[in-house]
Design goal:
The protein has about 190 residues and is an all-alpha fold. The protein has six helices and no strands. Helix 1 crosses helix 2 and helix 1 crosses helix 3.
Length: about 190
């Protein structure tokens, strides 16, 4: 179960950033034997799955570079990425009991939604900037983290799980700081 979670958490994290890059890395790693994968990941080795993932990655690669359109893309993917993250996590947990499968789906979907929400909100802030370079920079970083973390998860699952948990903690910390700052600001405005 620990090893399955070590795969599930970082792959769900990566799915929340870029589901298509994550699926492509899984498929290509299996297809070309870059790492020895557990049998449950063989489903990603299908040429059709790899092809669709690469085409969708190319579409997302372009969509992510266009200010404001990336926010529309992210809005649509508010449903897609958590479901994809849940699916990838369930696959990583296989074979598992029905309870472990449900828990894997809940953890995977929650982790993917958390990273997706962080990505989408950061992009919303970047869109308010008058220059386009912050969007491009963020997009490249997201792609590198998604693909890199996916590959590390396959080669060194415990290292990748540790990285993902540290990044999730950082997201939680930054979110709580922002929420507290907004509460203070709104409290001041109400008093005035």
């Amino acid at each position: 179960m620990t090893t399955a979670l070590a795969y599930a958490i970082p792959l769900a994290f990566a799915s929340g950033l870029n589901l298509y890059a994550t699926v492509a890395v899984l498929g290509l790693s299996s297809h070309f034997g870059l790492v020895a994968l557990p049998d449950q990941f063989r489903a990603f080795d299908n040429p059709i799955v790899i092809g669709v993932a690469l085409v969708m990655y190319a579409v997302e690669f372009v969509a992510d570079k266009v200010p404001w359109f990336d926010s529309v893309w992210d809005a649509v993917h508010t449903v897609v990425r958590p479901i994809g993250g849940a699916f990838v996590a369930v696959t990583a947990m296989a074979p598992a009991s029905p309870m472990a499968t449900i828990l894997g789906a809940l953890v995977g979907g929650s982790v993917a939604f958390t990273t997706h929400a962080a990505k989408a909100s950061t992009r919303g802030v970047a869109n308010a900037s008058p220059e386009p370079f912050s969007n491009w920079f963020l997009s490249f970083i997201e792609d590198i983290v998604a693909a890199g973390l996916s590959y590390i998860a396959l080669a060194h699952p415990l290292v990748a799980a540790t990285i993902a948990i540290v990044l999730l903690a950082a997201i939680g910390l930054f979110a709580s700081i922002i929420v507290r700052a907004l509460r203070r600001r709104f409290a001041r405005e109400i008093r005035q």
